[in-house]
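Working notes for the structural subgroup meeting. M.R. asked for a predicted model of this chain before we commit to crystallization trials. I am recording the input and output together here so anyone reviewing the notebook later can reproduce the run.

Input as submitted:
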Amino acid sequence: MGLEDDPFAYAVTKSGSVRVSRGGRVVVTVSGARAQCLIASLGVSEESDQLLLAKATGNYKRGNERRPKA
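Returned structure, recorded in token form:
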């Protein structure tokens, strides 16, 4: 299951925090300066938004996962 099947969603609160959710559940709430940088970067494209949200949650491929042997 990837981002195409289950994308991240976000909501900006009145206080300036960003609530990031996936599958209807809040995964993380980003606040402070980090939230302001995230808000400024969002809205360019759906693909870049998904990447930014994944990085904000820490749920993205780091490159060190094991690959199945062929």
